[in-house]
Each structure stands twice: as C-alpha cells, then as structure tokens.
Specification:
Residues 21-33 have a biased composition (Acidic residues). This protein is an all-alpha fold. The chain has 7 helices and no strands. It has 2 domains: 30-81; 90-154, Helix Hairpins.
Length: 155
C-alpha cells in the first residue's frame, strides 16, 4: 500500500509472532498489570509509552511482552475502564504537537519550503483524523487552526 503524501510504497517489516496466550515466563497477575497501567497513566505517560515500559521494566520485575495477551484488553481499554484515558487520542495529539512545532519553525524560517510542505501535509492529516474522531472523541464544532492546536497542546 502506498504512503499518503508520496508516491513511494511503505517499507515492509517483520510481523509480530502469532500467539494465543502469553509466554510461560511472563506469569504476572492481570490485576497487577491493570494497576501498573493506571499508575503509569497517572504519572503522565501515553498508552504507547505505557506498553514500552511494561515490556522493558515489567510489573514486579517480570516483563509483560503483550498487554492484550496477558489481560485480554488493550492499554486504552484498561484506561477507559478506570477513567484514566487521555482527553485526546494519542495519534491526534502527536500530530497537533508536530504541527505547532512546524508552524513555529516556518514562521522563523520563511524560506524553508520543504518544511512548509511538511506543515501542509501534517495539517491535512490532522483534518482527516479530526473527521474520524469528530463527535466521538472530539467536539462536533472542532475546526483545526494553529491557535486551537497551540491552546490544546499548552493545556
């Protein structure tokens, strides 16, 4: 499948091994994993960072290779169940942060045409994602602009 804003195709990579149950060496209790997920979310970590921390550091010293295999729920589902989910979806927030950084860079460096184009592409992705999340995770009246993005990021 081609990429969104280029004519090139994506690079292929290896797939995650298919597994129906967690490995024997990772025998952590589901409740302990959920507690650790909520604890990390309260510390301000994003769902992807929580997954990385559980993979690297683990719970009680035992790594958790896959939260969904161990608990039957995704990290975001655990956060929703404990009312600890972030206000905005992680992918949307990351795009807003990128757009704010690019906008400030383009303001300071007006001749940087490559990053002007990158800003346009990022804004296009934000508008597409806003259409997807509008009504569910975003307000119905949400419209992207640099000012609204900066306000959201500064919160």
């Amino acid at each position: 499948m081609a990429r969104m804003h280029t004519r090139r195709r994506g690079s292929s990579g290896s797939d995650r091994p298919t597994a129906d149950e967690p490995p024997e060496w990772s025998d952590v209790d589901e409740d302990a994993i959920e507690e650790r997920v909520v604890e990390l979310a309260e510390q301000g970590h994003d769902p992807s960072q929580i997954g990385l921390k559980l993979r690297d550091e683990g719970v009680q010293g035992t790594p958790v290779p896959d939260v969904k295999l161990a608990t039957g729920k995704k990290v975001t589902e655990i956060l929703e169940a404990h009312d600890a989910e972030p206000e905005l979806p992680e992918d949307f927030r990351n795009l807003l942060e990128k757009a704010v950084r690019l906008h400030e860079h383009v303001e300071a460096n007006g001749q940087d045409h490559q990053n002007k184009r990158a800003l346009q592409n990022t804004q296009s992705k934000i508008r597409r994602l806003a259409d997807y999340y509008r009504g569910d995770k975003l307000d119905e009246e949400f419209a992207y602009s640099y000012e609204t993005a900066r306000e959201i990021i500064e919160e």
